[in-house]
Every structure is written in structure tokens, then in C-alpha cells.
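Re: the multi-chain job from yesterday

Posting the exact lines I submitted so nobody has to dig through the queue logs.
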Amino acid sequence: MNVVFGFLRRPKVRIDIPRLKPRVDTSTLPKVNLAELTPEVLPYLGQVAYVQLAIFEEVSDAIAASPTVAAKQLLAPAAGQALDKHERFVAEIRRRVDAPSEVIDPFTAGIDRYRALVRGSDWFEQLASIYLTAGILDDFFTLLAAGLPGDTGPRCIAILDADTGRRAIVDILSDAIAADAVLGSRLAMWGRRVVGDTLLVARSAIHLTGNPESDEQRIEPVFTEMIAAHTRRMDRLGLTA
Amino acid sequence: MNVVFGFLRRPKVRIDIPRLKPRVDTSTLPKVNLAELTPEVLPYLGQVAYVQLAIFEEVSDAIAASPTVAAKQLLAPAAGQALDKHERFVAEIRRRVDAPSEVIDPFTAGIDRYRALVRGSDWFEQLASIYLTAGILDDFFTLLAAGLPGDTGPRCIAILDADTGRRAIVDILSDAIAADAVLGSRLAMWGRRVVGDTLLVARSAIHLTGNPESDEQRIEPVFTEMIAAHTRRMDRLGLTA
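And the result, C-alpha cells for all chains:
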């Protein structure tokens, strides 16, 4: 569990070095890959399809809870993109079996429990959770896709790599955080909180070989890089990870 | 108010005559039109844009509340289509002004109050409300569009006329109603309940001339036909209107 929670013990004092904020693209993803730990195709597709549906539902909920119509409109593309990705993954499942829901169903309870844990208690926490957790999960499923057979991996990566529409969340939150130090402090704590649960749910999607030592050796560098990518997302929000 | 609530006093005894169930198309719309009562372009667009956003939010909420993944997938297109229509109406507003939310804002409180009234107390009532009330409102804004200047009317009608994705709601509800007479009886009452509030919110969008008598003469046949279209939707669900 050190891999997952070790970052919580990092010294809180940080020197802020100005850095270019890169466009969110694949260059920000870990250089390692999880190919050895990729599950079978259908469990992979079932999980990633439901994760995208969950992102859609959480964004939709945040749209409904938005204080202004302007905010609803900023968030609408993120809902549309997640729904589109869900439907494209369902189409991938349907190429293989007739009833996509049977492939997805085994994973809904675990993911729903996780969603309840990271939903947050107000609109700002909800938005921060969506941006941070969906970012980690998109990275994770992109890495796992490297181990899928044939052209399935590249097709799944192309779906995940399409625009997320979540840049609007950065705009909304970074403005609010810049204007309110107390909010920034609260969301920084919240951002540190959700990453642990998210890495645990990611870990549950990994196909372990049964050799704990070699599994850990494979997982550790990947999770370390995923946490680094998370830290960059925290930076973009104006938060100390 | 007789126009709005008169249908509640229709005799409940009905002879069921088998009829062809037409595809939902413009031939089922009232033959009358509301051109004389159409508001200015921007208030029209602000209202219809927010109504579509509200439909999106209500469908999204029903997706989140769905008991199965299969049901979520059946409902997803209805959310996607409503969001797309919202965005197309916002694009129409943006052709005219820079800040669409300022055009929409004046109408959100009234429409939100209405939404709370017709939301229903469980998933089935929620689905019935979406199908029935969105159907009435789509008809209504299609009729109003006849009075918009230039090519704005045809463009708005084309947006509203695109697939709603709500056929899945008919499938879900008619199966459930066929299997459970108590549910059918409850939803029939609920369907009669929501139409009154929906016609009231539609009425609030009409530009009245200030001459109550001539206004009523224009409104009455339109609302009578809208109620007839509502009755056909109730039929499709297997409910007595």
C-alpha cells in the first residue's frame, strides 16, 4: 500500500517553480505500461465503458447542480464527450457479444461504491473529483490498453484520447480557487483524498499474475507516474498536491 | 382555464378502437399554428434552449436512477439528443448575441419550478413525465416557431424535428405497464396530472396581445390539438388519458 498512499507523507512544503502548462496530451502519460497486467478484452471493455458512463452521470449531476446557466453550458461538452466515449466502447463490446450490459454488469457495484466515496459534498468538490479522478482513470485505461490483442488496443486508446471537454472544469475551478484561499485549501485536501480511492479502484481492474512480488514490481512504477500526472492536474487547478 | 383543464372532466369510460400507431412525426402535430402569439426571437430561443437543457438533465437523472445498465443504455440517446438540441439552440442565440446565458437566465426560475412539480416520485413517473411533457413542449415550440421571422422558424423546427431518442422510454414503460396493472393505473393518473402544469408553462411563453378574448380564441384550438397529441402519447404507453 506504500505505492498508493506514500504520496500522502510527502513534505507539504513546496517550492513553486513556474512551468509551462502543457496541453493535456499523451506526452503527459506515464512512459511505462501495464501490458503484462491487462485483463481479458471483455472485462477491460466492460470496465472502461462503465467508467465513461459514470463520468457522464457525474458531469450531468454537476450540470444540474450548477449555480448558473453559463456554468451549465461550460460543462455540457464534458457530458457529451463522456457519453460518446461510453457509446463507442459499447459498440466495441457489441462487435463481440450481443448483450453489452451483461459484460458491464459485473463491474457496476464496485465502481458505484467508489463513486459514492469520491463524489464530494458540494459542487466544487464534485467538479474537482470529476477532473482529477477521470484524469487518473483515463490514464490508467490508456496504459492497460497496451496489452489488448490485435488492433483493439489502438482503437481503445483512440477513444480515450479524444477530447474530454473537461478543460472547462479547470477554468471554473482555477478561477474560484484564485479568488478564495479557503476554498483552495479545502479542495487541495479533497484532491489528496480522492486519489487514494481512485488508485484502489484502478488496482482492482488489474489482472494479477499471482506472484505478488513481480506484480508489485510492475505496478509500482506505473502508479508512481500516475501520481505524477495527478500532481500536474492539481497544479493546473492551482492546488498543492 | 377550461381549455387547460377541461380534459380532466372527460368521461373516463372509453371504447378502445384499434388504431395504427403512427411513427412520431410532424403529421401528428396540430394543424393550427401559434404564429400570432410567437414571442420575439431571443425570448423564444432562450426558452426553447433551456427546455432542451432541462430535458437533458431530467433524462440524465433518470439514467443515473436506472435499475440496470441495459436501461441506462436505452436512455442514453435521449440524453445525447436533448444536449445536442440545446447546443444547437445556443448556437442560434450566439449568432445574435455574445452571452447566451443572459438570454436564457430570465427563464430558468419558472421552468425549474415547473420541473420540480412534474418530476415524479419514482423512476417510472420520472420516465413518463419526460416522455409526456417533452412531447408537449416540443410540439408547442414547433408551433410557436411558425411566427419567427426569416429562416429562423424553419431552422428551429429542423432542430426540434430531429430524433428525440425517447422511443426507448415508450418501450420501457409500455412493457412495465403491460406487466403491472397497478403501475398502469398510477401512471395514467400521473400522466393526467402533468399535462396541466405543462400547458401552464407553455402558456407563460406565449406573447399575449392584451386582448383576452382574441388571445383565448387563438390559444384554445392549439391547446385542444396539443391535448389530442398528448392523448396519442398516452395511448402509446398503454395508458388511458
